[in-house]
Write a structure and sequence with these properties.
The protein is mostly helical. Helix content is 55%, strand content 6%. Strand 1 (113-114) and strand 2 (121-122) form a beta hairpin. Helix 1 (2-27) crosses helix 6 (63-72) and helix 8 packs antiparallel against helix 9. Bound molecules: iron/sulfur cluster (2 copies).
């Protein structure tokens, strides 16, 4: 419970910082537009954590992921994403698309896009983040709230790549009842618990499955402890 509370507080802290930076950058782009680099610096600075702990940036630190968790928990239709969205090619296409869109905004609006309304100007990073956020909210309402994180986010793609080398993972222990609840509630839509061992590199370490497990059979351990755990393939 303490871990869950800590996760919520960290998420709310990063959301608050990001919203303040976002508001200032929109209000006065010339003066505060560079605050938008803070988000990128934080992302690049904390992403190497994936090499040890997995995608903790996505689960605990990403302001966009935090907003999706906090805004959409009650309004998401919580349905499985369609096959086209789950297809691996869609993820590659999304990385190329959002990367290209970022470059386009960068070249087209280096001084920001002036909206001619109360001096509001949107910088290139803001434009990209707003496009991604709108996409994430739309998908999060229609399907699972983290559908964007699971299938489209370029940062999540990078995190999942690095996470392959992580030392820690979630493992089901002997107490597991094979009820399958952890797989059903996972916000990553079946992209975890796939290799018969731990939750795997796609897992964002949100720990929702661990808190939902009726017998607390999910442990966050180093990979060296795998033999003590229960293979996930025993679960339905
Ligand atoms: S780890 Fe817990 S939630 Fe998952 S199948 Fe086992 S008993 Fe069920
Ligand atoms: S496996 Fe558990 S911790 Fe990992 S993303 Fe799914 S619900 Fe979150």
């Amino acid at each position: 419970m303490k871990t869950k509370l800590a996760g919520n507080l960290i998420q709310k802290f990063t959301i608050t910082i990001w919203l303040i930076a976002f508001g200032l950058a929109v209000w006065n782009f010339k003066r505060f537009g560079s605050l938008m680099y803070l988000g990128m610096i934080m992302m690049l600075g904390t992403m190497p954590l994936a090499l040890i702990y997995g995608r903790v940036y996505c689960g605990w630190l990403c302001p966009m992921g935090g907003l999706l968790d906090n805004l959409l928990a009650r309004i998401s239709r919580n349905r499985p994403s369609p096959p086209w969205l789950r297809h691996p090619a869609t993820r590659i296409a999304a990385v190329i698309f959002f990367g290209g869109l970022g470059l386009f905004f960068w070249k087209r609006f280096p001084q920001g896009l002036a909206l001619n309304w109360r001096g509001v100007t949107l910088g290139p990073i803001l434009l990209l983040m707003m496009t991604m956020m709108l996409t994430a909210i739309t998908l999060g309402v229609l399907y699972r709230r983290r559908a964007f994180c699971a299938h489209l986010c370029p940062t999540g793609f990078l995190g999942a790549l690095l996470s392959r080398a992580s030392h820690y993972d979630l493992y089901r222990q002997e107490a597991c009842l094979d009820c399958g609840k952890c797989e059903r509630i996972c916000v990553l839509e079946g992209k975890t618990w796939t290799d018969g061992k731990g939750a795997g590199p796609e897992c964002i370490r949100c720990l929702e499955c661990a808190f939902a497990c009726p017998v607390q059979a999910i442990a966050y351990e180093t990979k060296a402890t795998v033999p003590a755990g229960k293979p996930a393939s025993n679960c339905p």
